[in-house]
Design a protein that fits this description.
Elements (H helix, E strand, L loop, with lengths): L3 H21 L7 H17 L1 H6 L18 E3 L9 E2 L2 H15 L5 E8 L2 E8 L2 E7 L5 E3 L2 H4 L17 E9 L2 H13 L8 H9 L4 H6 L3 E11 L6 H10 L9 E4 L1 H14 L7 E8 L2 H7 L9 E5 L4 E13 L4 E13 L2 E7 L3 H7 L6 E7 L3 E7 L33 E2 L6 H12 L11 H9 L6 H4 L4 H5 L6 H13 L5 H7 L7 H11 L2 H6 L2 H5 L6 H12 L1 H12 L10 H4 L9 E5 L7 H10 L3 E3 L8 E4 L5 H8 L4 E2 L1 H14 L1
Parallel strand pairs: 2-11, 18-19, 18-20, 20-21
Antiparallel strand pairs: 1-6, 3-9, 3-10, 4-5, 4-7, 7-8, 10-11, 12-13, 12-15, 13-14, 13-17, 15-16
């Protein structure tokens, strides 16, 4: 065997590299299973060669991954936060149970079994029933305070529904992104030609560490609370009693948990969870098994990084082997150049997969992925297909390492890569794929809402050099359109009319359509409501921008950079000359409908007969209300159409008012008459 100290040092360096990517950047390069194998190898070497291990100093096996980043205050936890030991097989779970039974001299122990939600750990402190702060796990002793970001989560109550409330309680939970919200964000990114997020966990972790709460709110994070760090006075004796107490306090909890007497019942619970987890609204990658008795938990204690009374049983992800036909490099709206694998179609987790993300050049080089290889594909977080590894035994002769292009495949411009980024970018703003994506975004329903300006039409307009900027849309003539595929007199007239009508769209839609980095729909509304005109926004100083609630340093920098760029200034002048509405100096509130729905929270579900989901949300917002994606005790009304799904059942269980579309439209008059 080679020198164990060299392998120990190599493994420690490798694991610490992956820890930084996973915990601090939310950009993991390997799967959980691959990471755990490296950790297990290191633990075995350190156990077999303690002197060699000691000579190397501190080890990542002796501490939790540190998620602290710059930009946040560091706060000490009331009680230490741990990570969980993982197991992937029945034998290791049996060994966990045997250790505890031997320690306590019991034939069978009572456990709870919870879904393991694939998110990021959070600590919540309430004093006298009011939320005081939210802190990430950090290094287990102290973490980043992210209270402002966590307050954007709709299901989190600011006050506990306890009478009397505990003096102080420190709760443990998991922040995650619901599957439907993850799909919504990725669909929007795909439409704009941007790289897709690999899984909900990475996106949720990255979102929580944004410095601007307004951007956090747009991504609609969710939360579940399941554990206890500190309680004063401490009156909760078991894990199962804690679950019921959390529910009574109005906190979001897991959809289902099991109480199991002995390992046989634990296995039955895990099997049932595995069968049901596809129906859950959140990503679930395993089961968490905990001793139910909290006094036994305390007696069992913990290692340097994990409790001895709990373990995570991780489900295997489904994998498939197929041939990688080719690697295509795509250019997105922001110029990001992303590699995509085209595969021989293969069935995976109930769907047919023919494409998979390769993330970036570094990932291709690290895994030595080549065109023609046989590759193992899995769904990362059971959502996005990714190439896990190459089957080198099946590699055809003559394959060559993939050479990432040095120039843009669309326009030939030399690519650039910033030292702190893993992505190459095309700096040419006139690059056709970038132009296409920007025009599609500008005309989309969420922006200027130009009907009939779909992907195929935009592709033709850009390919024939009829449109290079937003302003060119308003210079189109009928004869330009008649030369396009599937365009006749009526379709040309319809598109020209839709373009003309878009000149009078609300200011927030124009702001959103400009594609300013980090400025989404919600921020665009806030900016329009505050400044009233695009000119006032363009001239606003950093101090004036910060007066808008939720606008932080990142957004200030994005806005100032955009409006100070000469090309953008020229574009805005052209749009003004072409007759687009830049807003009115008259405050928006003066022209808005009465704010009858102010303070009311709505959830929409199902298909409404006349209004789209976006139209209904906008109608509610114009009248002072707000919409959220998940049902909670803070929800005032559920608006239900055809095929409403689980949200209808959740609202019924909470005895919430359920409205049809017609009842929603009549609600302002009803509320006015009551007042």
């Amino acid at each position: 065997m080679s020198d164990p100290s060299e392998r120990i040092a190599e493994l420690r360096e490798t694991i610490e590299h992956y820890d930084r990517l996973y915990y601090q950047k939310a950009e993991p390069e390997i799967s959980d299973r691959e990471y755990d194998r490296l950790k297990q190898e290191l633990e075995e070497l350190e156990r077999e060669h303690p002197q060699a291990a000691a000579a190397q100093g501190a080890s990542p096996t002796e501490r939790v991954g540190d998620d602290r980043t710059e930009g946040f205050a560091t706060v000490r936890h009331l009680a230490r936060m741990y990570s969980l030991d993982n197991t992937y097989n029945q034998e290791e779970l049996e060994a966990f149970d045997e250790r505890l039974r031997r320690r306590f001299g019991e034939k069978d122990l009572r456990y709870t079994v919870d879904p393991k939600i694939d998110g990021l750990a959070i600590s919540l402190v309430y004093e006298d029933g009011r939320l005081l702060r939210a802190v990430t796990r950090g290094n287990g002793v102290e973490g980043d305070e992210v209270t402002a970001n966590v307050r954007t989560i709709d299901s989190l109550p600011d006050g506990l529904g306890a009478d009397p409330p505990p003096d102080v309680v420190e709760l443990r939970g998991e922040i995650y992104l619901r599957n439907e919200e993850f799909h919504r964000i990725n669909a929007e990114r795909e439409r704009r030609g941007e790289a897709l997020y690999a899984n909900p966990r990475n996106l949720a972790a990255g979102t929580l560490k944004l410095l601007d709460p307004t951007l956090v709110a747009e991504r609609k994070l969710s939360l579940v609370v399941y554990g206890l760090g500190h309680l004063q006075p401490d009156t909760i004796r078991s894990q199962s009693a804690l679950q019921e107490t959390l529910r009574e306090w109005g906190l979001p909890v897991v959809e289902q948990y099991w109480v199991a007497d002995g390992l046989a019942e634990v296995w039955r619970a895990i099997g049932e969870l595995d069968r049901r987890r596809g129906d859950f609204a959140y990503p679930t990658d395993g089961a968490v098994v905990k001793l139910d008795d909290r006094s036994l938990q305390e007696e069992a204690g913990a290692t340097a990084k994990a409790p001895r009374w709990a373990i995570a049983y991780k489900f295997e992800t489904e994998k498939a082997t197929t041939r990688l036909q080719s690697i295509e490099v795509q250019v997105g709206r922001t110029g990001a150049v992303t590699p995509v694998a085209h595969l021989d179609p293969v069935s995976l987790a109930g769907t047919t997969v023919a494409r998979a993300t390769l993330h970036n050049e570094d990932e291709i080089r690290r895994k030595d992925i080549r065109e023609g290889d046989w590759v193992v594909v899995e769904k990362a977080g059971e959502i996005i297909p990714q190439v896990l590894e190459v089957d080198h035994d099946k590699r055809p002769e003559g394959t060559e390492p993939f050479v990432f292009p040095t120039h843009c495949p669309a326009c030939g411009t030399e690519l650039r890569r910033l030292p702190e980024e893993a992505v190459w970018r095309c700096p040419n703003a006139a690059c056709p794929p970038q132009v296409r994506r920007r025009i599609e975004h500008f005309g989309s329903r969420a922006c200027l809402d130009i009907e009939n300006l779909g992907e195929a039409v935009v592709d033709q307009l850009v390919s024939r050099d009829l449109v290079r900027t937003f302003a060119d849309l308003y210079r189109l003539r009928k004869e330009d359109l008649l030369g396009l595929d599937r365009f006749a007199d009526k379709s040309a007239d319809n598109l020209l009319q839709a373009v003309a009508d878009s000149k009078e769209q609300d200011l927030w839609r124009l702001i959103h359509g400009l594609g300013i980095p980090n400025v989404g729909a919600t921020t665009s509304r806030d900016l329009a409501r505050h400044f009233h005109t695009l000119d006032a926004l363009a001239k606003a100083s950093p101090g004036e921008l910060r007066e808008v609630e939720g606008i932080g340093d990142i957004l200030v920098a994005s806005l100032r950079s955009f409006f100070e760029e000469p090309h953008n200034q020229q574009l805005l002048e052209e749009l003004r000359e072409l007759g687009l509405s830049f807003g009115s100096s008259t405050p928006e509130a003066a022209a808005s409908p009465p704010q009858t729905l102010a303070g009311k929270t709505f959830v929409l579900t199902g298909s409404l007969p006349n209004l789209s989901r976006d139209e209904a949300s906008e109608w509610i917002r114009q009248r002072g209300g707000k919409t959220t994606s998940s049902v909670s005790r803070k929800t005032d009304y559920l608006v239900a159409g055809d095929n409403p799904g689980s949200k209808y059942d959740q609202a019924s269980a909470l005895s919430l008012p359920i409205l049809s579309e017609s009842e929603l439209l009549a609600l302002p008059n009803e509320l006015s008459s009551v007042e």
